[in-house]
Amino acid sequence: MAQYFEIKAVNPGYLLFYRMGDFYELFFEDAEIASAALGIVLTKRGKHLGEDIQMCGVPIHAANDYLNKLIKLGHRVAICEQMEDPAEAKKRGSKSVVRRDVVRLVTPGTLTEDDHLDARSANYLAALAMVRHGDTDFALAWADISTGETFVSDLSADALQDEMARIAPAELLLTDAARAALTERHLFAPAWSGIATAIPAALADSEAAMPVLRAAFPADRFDPSALSRAGRAALGALVTYVGESQKGRTAPLRAPLSNAAETVMAIDAATRSSLEILQTQRGQAKGSLRHAIDLTVTAPGARLLAGRLAAPLRRADLVNERLDAVGRLVDDTLLRTRLRQDLKTAPDLARALSRLALERGGPRDLMAIGKAVSAALDLAAHLKGQPDLPRVLAGLADILDAAPRPLASELALALDDELPLLTRDGGFVRPAYDGTLDEERSLGRETRAVVAALQARLMDETDVRSLKIKHNGVLGFFVEVPAAHGQKLLEAPWREAFIHRQTLANAMRFTTTELAELEGRIARAQDAALEIELDIFARLRDAVLDLTAQLQGLADALAELDVTAALAEVSAQRGYCRPIVDDSLAFAISGGRHPVVELMVKAEGQSFVANDADLSGSEEIGGGSLWLVTGPNMGGKSTFLRQNALIAILAQMGCYVPADSAHIGVVDRLFSRVGASDDIAHGRSTFMVEMVETAAILNRATRRSLVVLDEIGRGTATFDGLSIAWAAVEALHETTGCRALFATHFHELTSLAKTLSRVANVTMKVREWEGEVVFLHEVGPGAADRSYGIQVARLAGLPEPVIARARQVLDVLEQRSAGTASSSQKASVLDDLPLFAHQPAPAPKGKDPIHEALDAVRPDEMTPLQAIEALYQLKKIRDDARRS
Ligand SMILES: Nc1ncnc2c1ncn2[C@@H]1O[C@H](COP(=O)(O)OP(=O)(O)OP(=O)(O)O)[C@@H](O)[C@H]1O
């Protein structure tokens, strides 16, 4: 156990997979954790300090599955292998222990195997560093080891959470000091706890990082001294951690791209969640924007598409370059179809390359690289003949055309059609590729013929017709005869040649020197063949790795072509239009649709109602317009709001948009908030969350931003909510001047359009038909005069008596609004339910039980039954008050 303790001690925080023969064994607490997590049996093995040693084990062949499960559950695993053959250890003395060492640390951010990864999503490891002096406080470095992509970015405290939300790393490295500082400044998001890994301060040191970075990246591609101190510290920590986890194998990290947060549209975590960009608020792919528009045909393409959706560009010229490329493929259906067909044959080059570099790759990875190179050449051939290719496509064509053809030919020649998973089993080199290998293999085959001839000869010589030459792992080759004939071979003259080895119930087994020789020859031939195959593998692998940088570039080009063709496919299939994207403050969408809701509505056989939006403004008039959207519940307000935000994202990521026409001046920051009823609050009260988020918008939005606010202020008492919403609209209009859509049930807000020049009222149209509302989902000018809340409540199944009573109350309230209610009516109802009053009622003197009861009511949190009970309770309080 001494060796175990030694290894365990240097790998704290990891479950130790301790190799013993055909099993990885876990001991003590590790065993308890793993057996509970994996549902495997916990056993005991010997004693330590008088206590039983808990143990459980996973067989080698199934270890990957178990490992996967543990990592998904948030555990970290150290893989400890036997570093020598047990026979070698024996040579040192009978008591010698087999040498063992940890060959790899497996953590959520350092995965490389396909079994562990989602093929269509990146898997980032991030490191966050903080330097208390200098211009920038924070820096984030992140890399996907499975593909080699590496980035580093300086960040202001402001941008930190947005960037983390965009990158969504699987693991975040940071020192305890950095964590404490972030927590103190309320910058450590609760969600990060689950992915945080504490690293020692020495790992995130900007000075110590220099030699690490110089060694990790080629000098001609990357100069670490150009980074900020925080950037160096973060990247240094990342590279060191990756190196330690791979135990000496070099992950093919690419020269880091300095990813300045200012080049992309800033989208904070709440906006990402509310717009359901990569996943729905419930965490599902289906229903998200990504799911709706991802028509890529390769996994690397899907990863790039997700990256682009998460980071729309902020520069109009770059957006237009992408749009030119997409446009060309929208227009040329034939070229698009051909490209997409050939792209389907291109395997995941980047991940195969990474595994080969980490000595984890097999023959199938080599084959993947060969096929990807061939596909690249085919794709280049389609593109090369095309006249006047847009810049992006021409650039891709050049990269694809330069793909290393000789490498692909060599791999195709060398590798067989059917390939084993593991290199160590051999059997992957194609016949006729290597003369010596063929010789060794034929020797093996010939020997088998010799065995057959020998069997025939021995049969003749001994006259035992049922004599057979067989093979098993214990005896090797042996002669087997039925028990009845066995005695004969035990006697002279045969006993000289036949050495007795085994007696079974009805057979006897013998070996002969001739057979032993044969055995040796076959084994030698097999070993020799395997050795040659392994040499060939190593040679091919080296040939591939020599071209790492070029192949990584090729992988990028293939992914980019897939994304471009996929976006063109979506645009063509669904009638999207090319947006005009420039540096103006325009936001004019005609015939806009919601890319996700449109699909759902159409799937149900209905048609989606397209709507216009025009928030365009200019510097001269103080910014963009703000539309106040009123209308009934279920009328389509949220859909309308979100569709405009999604159109901005699609346009700036370089995709056509679901509209008849669109003109968008680049949006620098996008904000989208949904009201209190949409359950996004955890921990804090819904109102508090709503206010914190509204504050973030008011503090951070600029004139270039697009703000989409859905029923802000609904989470509190009516007057508070109305006043906050009122002030927020004024601030957005007067101070920020951003383009904004503001949906509200506070109809009073619509009067702001009279005083604020860039505020306009629009409403979701409805038609009333026999007392029912029909939603037209159409946006038109004007303000809704009512919310149709009661009709919607009826559609939702509220009991008739409650509906009837609500109508009664509403009638009186409306009359009071219009000043036509009689004084007795006012006295009976209105003072109790001050819903739509323009002026807050004067604060009651002393304690007013009705107000107290109303203050305690939280409509958003009530079931219909509780609402009715509350209504009855209110009446009772009023009646009691009258009586007293
Ligand atoms: N333009 C449209 N065309 C067709 N159907 C639509 C359209 N807009 C919305 N819908 C349908 O109406 C449903 C309700 O829309 P939405 O959630 O946007 O309403 P809402 O006004 O925001 O309601 P609430 O105020 O209750 O949140 C959607 O789920 C969709 O099925």
TrEMBL record:
Annotated residues for binding of ATP: G631, P632, N633, M634, G635, G636, K637, S638
Query: Which PROSITE patterns does the entry link to?
Result: DNA_MISMATCH_REPAIR_2
The signal peptide here is none
Pfam families registered for this protein in UniProt: MutS_I, MutS_II, MutS_III, MutS_IV, MutS_V
| Keyword terms, alphabetized | ATP-binding, Coiled coil, DNA damage, DNA repair, DNA-binding, Nucleotide-binding
Q: What does this protein do?
A: This protein is involved in the repair of mismatches in DNA. It is possible that it carries out the mismatch recognition step. This protein has a weak ATPase activity.
Q: Which NCBIfam families match?
A: mutS1, PRK05399.1
PANTHER family, alphabetically? DNA MISMATCH REPAIR PROTEIN MSH1, MITOCHONDRIAL, DNA MISMATCH REPAIR PROTEIN MUTS FAMILY MEMBER
Supply the name of the protein: DNA mismatch repair protein MutS
Q: Which organism is it from?
A: Devosia salina
Q: Which gene encodes it?
A: mutS
